[in-house]
Structures are given as structure tokens and as C-alpha cells.
Write a structure and sequence with these properties.
The chain is mainly α. Helix content is 72%, strand content 0%. Helix 4 packs across helix 10 (212-236) and helix 5 packs across helix 7 (157-183).
């Protein structure tokens, strides 16, 4: 490998790092709530990945003598009616929520892209048939559909991911279809069609990059929605089957039965669920605002109050203001 090639690779590497660093700096300065949400998301991922290391006890390790023990030095969040450590089960529940939320949201994005992009770009009778199918699917109440589907395929982690991915993917395809219809009317798409570019190339190079903003919005809103939906199903007994700990399952059953005698059995799983959903929502909104150039205003990031313009740009702005007032 020549020295020029090595130098070019090093420059590309530094550019990528500077972009990432610039994004993180802007996130901290411009979006403080988004920064808090990002920290929560990172902690959730870290907790889910290293649950075996962080949990002081096994997720189903039983200590009958210490049943219904309030929070103490030995059990920081107390124990349940069987003597299982609440902290350990909340930590392992974070892994379940992370797997279900990310996997089902990714599957829903694939389904939404497949339906929304093809339907919006092709149009015509194909669009008409696909949208009537989507309309008919959206007529069913989501909870009734979920309960019926889970009762047919039986509860389980993989089954819940597939069902939630299909449900929210079909529903979200309407948003992406609208975005595709707006993008395909631009001149550069018509020019690509006129010169005979293949449809796949047009979709990949022109359509998909310009619908990333709604795609990020849909993904960031679906992850917490899917986590809450999984908790709802587990609360009703149709989610992740026991003894696997799920935040919704911990709120149901013994958590609801012993709510007044041992309130910590319901407080900590509910608090973990609320903080996680809040953090993901705030982080998703912040990422959307920072990545979408249309939301930055005419002067980009310098349009915000307290942000100084570079000297050359400031001089041009002042000169333009003087000419406009004369």
C-alpha cells in the first residue's frame, strides 16, 4: 500500500471521527434533554449486555427465608414473595426490553420500507391495493390483534418480536409512503428516471437518503412503544412466559397481589419502564433534530441564540442587512 493511500485513509478516518465528535458536542450543547436520554439509552444497553455481571444474584435465585424483605444492604431493592432479588430481576428485565424493543423496531422498519417505499414509488393500482390492505389491517384494534396472534402462536420471545414487528411495520408504512411520494416529485428523481437509471438505484441513492428523517422519527417512537406493548402483554399474561423476568410480568401476578404489603415489588419495575421510555423518546427527538438540516433554520446551527457566527459570515450578513435597508 502506497503512502498516498495510507494518507487518504487516515484523512477519511479523521473526518469520520470529527463528524462523530461534532455530533456529540452539538448534542450536549443544543439538546440537554437529548443528552440525558442518550445517557439513559447507553445505560440500558450496557445493563442489558452485562446483566450477568451486574446482577448480584441470579434472576431466579430463590431465598425463601428473605421473602418480602424491604430494601436493605443485602437486597438494595428488596425481594419478592419468593425471596428473589428485585434488583437482579430488574437488570435482567432490561435485557429483555432491549432485545424486544430493538429487534421488533428493526423488523418493523423493514416491513414499513418494503410496503411504504414500493407503494409510494410505484403508485397506480399497486398503491391502491396495498393501501386498502393497510387500511383493513389498521381497522383491527391493536390489543385485540396482539392477544389473538399470541394465543395462536403461543407466548415466547421470538413470537413477540415477530408479531410486534409486523403490527407496527404495517401501520408505519403510511408515514414512509407519504415521504416517498413527496421525494419522488423532485427534479433529481425525474432526471434519474429520464436518463434510464434502474429503479433499485433510484430507490437506494435518491429515495432512501431523503426519507431518513421520518425513518429516524418512526424508529425512535416505535422502540419505547414496543417496550410498553411488550410490558402490557406480559402484564396480561400473553408476553414473555415466566420465569424469565419482564418488567410487565413483574408488575403483574405477585407484584399486583403484594402491592400494598410490599410496594417495592411494583415501584421499581414501573420506575425502570418509565425512565427507559422517557430516555429513548428524548434521545430520538434530539437525534432527529440534529440530523435533519431542515430543522436548523436558515443559518444552520449558528441560528440559535448565543451562538456566534464566523467573522466572514457575520460580515456578509451585516452587508446584506445594510443593502436591504437602503
Amino acid at each position: 500500500m502506497s503512502d498516498a493511500t495510507v494518507t487518504a485513509l487516515m484523512k477519511e478516518d479523521s473526518k469520520k471521527r470529527s463528524r462523530l465528535l461534532d455530533f456529540l458536542i452539538r448534542l450536549v450543547k443544543e439538546k440537554p434533554l437529548g443528552t440525558v436520554g442518550g445517557i439513559i439509552v447507553v445505560l440500558l444497553l450496557f445493563t442489558g449486555i452485562f446483566a450477568n455481571v451486574l446482577a448480584p444474584y441470579g434472576m431466579n435465585e430463590v431465598h425463601p427465608i428473605d421473602a418480602l424483605t424491604p430494601p436493605s444492604a443485602s437486597y438494595l431493592l428488596g425481594t419478592d414473595n419468593l425471596g428473589r432479588d428485585i434488583l437482579s430481576r430488574v437488570i435482567f428485565g432490561a435485557r429483555i426490553s432491549m432485545i424486544v424493543g430493538l429487534a421488533a423496531a428493526a423488523l418493523s422498519m423493514l416491513v414499513a420500507l418494503l410496503i411504504g417505499v414500493t407503494s409510494g414509488y410505484i403508485g397506480g393500482r399497486f398503491d391502491l391495493v396495498m393501501q386498502r390492505f393497510v387500511d383493513g389491517f389498521m381497522c383491527f384494534p391493536p390489543l385485540v390483534f396482539l392477544l389473538a396472534a399470541v394465543s395462536i402462536v403461543s407466548p415466547g420471545l421470538v413470537q413477540i418480536i415477530v408479531i410486534l414487528g409486523l403490527l407496527y411495520g404495517i401501520s408505519s408504512s403510511r408515514v414512509l409512503r407519504s415521504a416517498v411520494i413527496g421525494v419522488k416529485q423532485n427534479m433529481y428523481v425525474e432526471a434519474a428516471v429520464a436518463i434510464g437509471s434502474p429503479t433499485i438505484k433510484i430507490l437506494v441513492r435518491h429515495i432512501l437518503p431523503n426519507i431518513m428523517a421520518p425513518l429516524i422519527i418512526v424508529f425512535s417512537t416505535q422502540v419505547p412503544t414496543i417496550i410498553i406493548t411488550e410490558a402490557t402483554l406480559s402484564f396480561l399474561g400473553f408476553g414473555i412466559p415466566p420465569p424469565t423476568p419482564s418488567w410487565g410480568g413483574m408488575l403483574s401476578g405477585s407484584g399486583r397481589s403484594y402491592m400494598f404489603l410490599a410496594p417495592w415489588m411494583a415501584i421499581w419495575p414501573g420506575l425502570a419502564l418509565s425512565i427507559t421510555v422517557y430516555g429513548i423518546n428524548m434521545f430520538g427527538d434530539a437525534v432527529r433534530d440534529l440530523l435533519d438540516p431542515r430543522l436548523r433554520g436558515g443559518l444552520g446551527r449558528y441560528s440559535r441564540r448565543g451562538k456566534k457566527l464566523p467573522k466572514q459570515i457575520a460580515r456578509r450578513v451585516e452587508a446584506y442587512k445594510k443593502r436591504s435597508t437602503q
